[in-house]
Amino acid sequence: MEKSALVYEGKAKKLFQTDQSNVLWVEYLDQATALNGAKKDAIHGKGALNNQITSLIFQWLNEEGMTSHFIKSISKHEQLVESVEIIPLEIVVRNVAAGSFTKRFGIPEGTLLAFPIVEFYYKDDALDDPFINDEHIRLLKLATGKEINDIKHLAFRLNQLLCRLFADIDIQLVDFKIEVGRNKNGKILLADEITPDTCRLWDRQTKDHLDKDIYRRDLGDLIPIYQEVLQRLENYLAKEQ
Ligand code: TMP
Q1: How far apart are CA 210 and CA 228, in angstroms?
Q2: How many distinct structural domains can be found in the chain?
Q3: For atom 8 of ligand 1, which residue has the closest CA?
Q4: Which atom of ligand 1 is the closest one to the Cα of 174?
Q5: 76, 57: one domain
Q6: Could you tell me if 62 and 162 lie in one domain?
Q7: Ligand 1 centroid from CA 213, angstroms
Q8: Torsion over CA of 192, 194, 195 and 199, rounded to 10 degrees?
Q9: What's residue 240's pLDDT?
Q10: Is residue 237 one of the residues assigned to a domain?
Q11: 196 near 210, Cβ under 8 Å?
Q12: Which residues of 153-188 are buried (b: 16+ CB within 10 A; e: fewer)?
């Protein structure tokens, strides 16, 4: 497989075309951003950690019957994925109040929600990714009503699977963000990444942050924390085999 033209450069990764039209080459970058890019730093080793973490999770999800765009990891910081048409939504699932939810509703961080909820944000940096609802999504023609239902179903099922996986490695899954896309048959597929950049992960005993809040809130060095998450996943998945 050959890497060719750059097709997309985001805050944390670059996507390249390959010699197969439906396959993209993803390179995870040593970069951290917060506050919609206003805070930005190079962090050596972060790209490789995120690629390894998301690859293990997507591989495990596949074995649990949840397909995604993920094909395979090809190096410590690179992977191949199926090319999909990304729907410009950030889909957030919350189990525990934290982050923007605590600010918006005045509910203290750490409050267990009575049931998991899904929220949608319109992925548009110029508009600062506004919070939107199902009707906005249909009005803006970002997705159909059926697709919105499929996305919610996928998000809740994924939440159940991920809560189980993280509980088994003594981590509470507080919330997470996913992106989805349409494959060439129009099927909604889980895409993007699942990493400590895109999830809030708290140690179940100590409640320590094991995620990008370390960087967002200037709580210390992110690398040993991401290494800890990767180590726990590797140990657990090795035992499962
Ligand atoms: P929030 O509390 O800031 O809305 O974030 C909810 C979850 O979504 C949290 O796990 C972090 C993740 N997230 C991203 O991955 N990218 C983003 O741009 C934002 C705002 C949140």
Answers
A1: 8
A2: 2
A3: 177
A4: 10
A5: yes
A6: no
A7: 10
A8: 110
A9: 82
A10: no
A11: yes
A12: ebbeebbeebbebbeebebbbbbbbbbbbbbeeeeb
CA dist 227 to 48, 61, 79, 236, Å? 10, 21, 19, 14
Domain that holds residue 35: 3-82
Q: What is the CATH number of the domain that holds 13?
A: 3.30.200.20
Centroid of ligand 1 to alpha carbon of 47 (angstroms): 18
pLDDT band at 55, cuts 50/70/90? very high
Q: Report the mean per-residue pLDDT for the chain.
A: 97
CA of 184 to the centre of ligand 1 (A): 28
pLDDT at 202 (0 to 100): 98
Give the predicted TM-score (pTM) of the model: 0.97
Q: Looking at the structure, do residues 106 and 127 belong to the same domain, yes or no?
A: yes
Residue that finishes a domain, picked among 37, 54, 82: 82
For residue 98, the ligand 1 atom closest to its alpha carbon is 2
**Where does the pLDDT of residue 35 fall: very low under 50, low under 70, confident under 90, or very high at 90 and above?**
confident
Alpha helices for the chain (secondary structure H): 46-63, 99-105, 134-139, 145-168, 213-216, 222-240
Based on the fold, state whether residues 73 and 108 are members of the same structural domain: no
Average pLDDT over residues 43-72: 98
Regarding whether 158 and 138 lie in a shared domain, the answer is yes
- Residue 128: pLDDT band by 50, 70, 90 thresholds? very high
Token pair 């597929």 in the structure block, residue: 189
Domain holding 90: CATH number?
Answer: 3.30.470.20
Q: What are phi and psi of 218, to 5 degrees?
A: 50, 50
H/E stretch holding 28: strand 23-28
Q: Region 68-86: what's the mean pLDDT?
A: 98
Task: Let me know whether 23 and 89 are in one domain.
Answer: no
